[in-house]
Amino acid sequence: MFNEEMYELYKKYELAVHNKERPPDQMNRFICSSPVYDENLDHEIINRPSPLTFDELDRNRVFQDEGIFPQKKGTYHMYHRLNGKLVAVGVLDLLKNYVNSGYFIYDPDYKFLNLGVMGALRELEYMRLVR
To answer: Which is higher by pLDDT, 130 or 115?
Structure first.
């Protein structure tokens, strides 16, 4: 789900790493709006188009902490904080038989911490827990 704190991190990351200024709607489309799972059509997921437009996807979403084992399949954000400050976000797609690491953004001011490596290790650890 889109939130201002994550957008500020995304904007800073995209400018520093990719040298591009990104508007909020681009982050919303790219990281927050992802219809990745339909339990009844799992076998067709790769070949079917999205049934909704990006504008429609977030209309019923509610930001909530679902613990470490979400009950529903779909796209989730793994927040990484340092002393309460959001320093990185991993975007994970949880499917019936797979976990996909879709994207990872981090605060360039903390580049020296190798947050991408830390995020990958944390996601691998998470995959072991949910299998």
So the answer is: 115
